[in-house]
Design a protein that fits this description.
CATH class of the largest domain: Alpha Beta
Mean pLDDT: 92
Low-confidence stretches: none
CATH superfamily of the largest domain: Glycogen Phosphorylase B
Strand order of the largest sheet: 3-2-1-4-5-6-7
Number of helices: 12
Helix content: 25-40%
Largest sheet: 7 strands, parallel
Structural class: alpha/beta
Strand content: 15-25%
CATH topology of the largest domain: Rossmann fold
Number of domains: 2
Order of helices and strands: EHEEHEHEHEHEEHEHEHEHEEHHH
Radius of gyration: 22 Å
Number of strands: 13
Distance between the termini: 7 Å
Length: 366
């Protein structure tokens, strides 16, 4: 008989976001395998959480500085025991430390996830991580750049860090020419300056002066949105730029993009670029973090220096001007997304990594 392995994923919350979306896809992809997923969120969540018909527990505003952490950690420990959890995987800083504490009192294998280039790193956050590291049996990074960042910065053993790229569902459809005026878009949350959405708007203003029929769109929301809208108006973009706010599934809109842009100064593995690729959209992206692992210069897009607004505008205009180049990149992106970044490949690599981590556990029949 096949051994069933119970896995618990611990994450801060399960709202709509890149890491959260990848976790949901992983959980769904494990359906029918020998791995049975369970879920713990530290904060009250909506969105994805209700869509997952798996055993789950919500600790509701778990914080290490609050006395209630002891009772909530005890609840989670009981959940681990009752569900015979054999492997725990954590996402983000508080779950990372919580996983280490729970392992001290429970017998399971522990895996940590690295998914960015550490823009959050404060003295306190780094201390949490470094206290937790010795309890971890292995780590998963979503790009080589992320792996190298944590291996160098925290002196981790490279052999313990596996690179597993994010996955995306590529629909079976052919790439067709876009109708209407050119549409240049960016998918980025407006809640952190590291996304540098203001660079996109400045570049859009340059492009619009040369290509006045071009339209621009920013998909995402957050506290910086109002400031970005004011910037667009001050640069004379007016009705030429639209802000959609948050979209749970932006792929339908992305399919209408002529060019997809990313202006971030820090990226682990950019899900927006992956979405552009799956929709057959040429990419102009900053050469930050894992972006060069997705974008091959001149093949499926262009890489530009962070903050170089003139270069961003120049590459957008090059793609607007050269239809043959655009068509080649459209198909190259579809092929790359299908062959290298499918959800099935992402799930398979997780399963292989889990098998390796669990190989030292006593085998049981179920």
């Amino acid at each position: 008989m096949v051994m069933t392995v119970n896995i618990l994923y611990i994450i801060q919350f399960l709202r709509y976001g890149g890491t959260e979306k990848q976790l949901v896809q992983l959980i769904r992809g494990l359906k029918g395998s020998c791995f049975r997923p369970h879920l713990c969120t530290l904060e009250t969540s909506a969105g994805f959480l209700e869509e997952l018909p798996i055993p789950k527990i919500n600790l509701q505003c778990f914080h290490f500085h609050h006395l209630s952490m002891f009772s909530k950690a005890a609840r989670l420990s009981a959940f681990i025991h009752d569900n015979d959890i054999q492997l725990v995987q954590t996402f983000f800083q508080d779950p990372f430390l919580l996983g280490a504490i729970l392992k001290y009192f429970n017998k399971f294998k522990l895996v940590g996830s690295f998914r960015d280039m550490g823009f959050w790193r404060t003295r306190e956050a780094v201390l949490k991580m470094r206290v937790a590291y010795p309890f971890y049996d292995g780590f998963i990074a979503n790009s080589k750049a992320v792996r190298d960042f944590f291996v160098r910065g925290d002196r981790l053993c490279p052999k313990k860090v596996e690179v597993i790229y994010n996955g995306i569902d590529v629909k079976e459809e052919t790439v067709t020419p876009k109708d209407g005026p050119p549409l240049v878009g960016i998918v980025a949350n407006c809640n952190r300056l590291v996304k540098r959405c203001h660079d996109f708007i400045h570049a859009a203003a340059i492009v619009h002066r040369h290509w006045p029929e071009t339209r621009f769109i920013l998909v995402g929301d957050g506290p910086l949105r109002r400031e970005l809208e004011k910037l667009g108006n001050s640069l004379g973009l007016g009705d030429a730029i639209r802000f959609t706010g948050h979209l749970a599934d932006p792929l339908e809109l992305i399919r209408s993009f002529t060019v997809g842009v990313i202006t971030s100064q820090s990226e682990g593995f950019c899900n927006a670029i992956l979405e552009y690729m799956a929709c057959g959209v040429p990419v102009v992206a900053t050469a930050a973090g894992g972006n060069p692992e997705l974008v091959q210069e001149g093949k499926n897009g262009f890489l530009v220096p962070v903050g170089d607004i003139e270069k961003i505008a120049e590459k957008i205009e090059q793609l607007l001007r050269d239809q043959s180049l655009r068509c080649g990149m459209q198909q190259a992106n579809r092929n790359k997304a299908t062959n290298e970044f499918s959800i099935s490949k992402m799930v398979e690599k997780h399963e292989l990594f889990y098998d390796r981590i669990l190989s030292t556990l006593p085998k049981r029949l179920s």
